[in-house]
Amino acid sequence: MSHTPHLFPLRALRAATLVTVAAAALLAGCAALEPVKTGDKLIGGPESAVRETFGTPTDTFKLADGTTRWIYSKQPYGYDIYAADFDANGRLKSFREMLTEAEIYSAKPGVWTKQDVLERWGQPKEPINYYPLMKREAWSYRMYVPPYQPAHFSVYFTDAGVVDRTMIILDARGDRNRR
After folding, report:
1. Measured on CA atoms in the order 153, 73, 57, 128, is the torsion positive or negative?
2. 76 with 31: CB under 8 angstroms?
3. Helix (H) or strand (E) holding 149
4. Residue 85 near residue 92 (C-beta atoms within 8 A)
5. Which of 4, 28, 31, 126 is 20 to 30 A from 52 via CA?
6. Is the bond preceding residue 147 a cis peptide, omega within 30 degrees?
7. Mean pLDDT score of the chain, rounded to an integer?
C-alpha cells in the first residue's frame, strides 16, 4: 500500500483551518445577535479580543477616572450603541448597551457638557439641528422604547454647550427600514 506522507498533514491542516474559520464565524454571529452576552464573556480580556470580536470602535475616549471607553454605534440606521470600558491595563471591565433608561436618565441638565454626552453615546450620526428661537442645539440618537417602538433620544444644549434638557420622542412614522 502506497502512502503519500504529505496528504495527511495537509488534510489535518485544512480541517483545522475550517474549524478555526467556523469558530470565528460563530463568534461573529453571536456578537451580532447578542452583543452584550458576547461582551460579558470577554470581561477581563485584552483590548485585542474585543477588537477581534466587535471590530474597530466608532469612537474612543479616555475618561477622567483612567478608563478607556470604546463606543460601538449602529447609528444612523441601527438603534443600538454599546460601550466597552477598559481599565488602565487595557482589560475589559464592562460591556453594555448605552441607550437604556438608566443611561439616558443619568444625563444631568445644567451640569453635563457636550463632552459628557460624547463620552456616553458617541458622536451623533443623525444630523445635528439648531433651533434659533430656543437658542438650542439638538443631538439625536435612534433607539427603541418598549415594546420595540422606534424613537429618538435627543439632547439639547445651550449656546455654552451645557445640557439643557433631554427627551425621548416616539417616531410616529415607525421603522424607516421597513419598506
Report:
1. negative
2. no
3. strand 149-157
4. yes
5. 126
6. yes
7. 86
Q: What pLDDT sits at residue 10?
A: 47
Burial (Cβ within 10 Å: 0-12, 13-18, ≥19) of residue 81? buried
Of the candidates 104, 102, 149, 142, the residue with the CA atom closest to the CA atom of residue 126: 142
Question: pLDDT tens digits, residue range 121-156?
Answer: 999 999 999 999 999 999 999 999 988 899 999 999
Helix (H) or strand (E) holding 115: helix 114-121
Euclidean distance between CA atoms 1 and 73, whole angstroms: 60
* Amino acid (1-letter code) at residue 124: P
Pairing of β 81-86 and β 163-170: unpaired
Cell of 3: 502512502
Instruction: Identify whether the C-beta of residue 80 lies closer than 8 Å to the C-beta of residue 128.
Output: no
* CA 79 remoteness from chain centre: 10
SS3 assignment, position 44: coil
- Distance from chain centroid for Cα 128: 20
What is residue 175's predicted lDDT score, i.e. its pLDDT?
A: 54
More confident residue, 31 or 160: 160
Model pTM greater than 0.70? yes
Grouping H, G, I as helix, E, B as strand and the rest as coil, residue 116 is helix
Percent of the chain whose pLDDT exceeds 70: 78
Length of the chain: 179
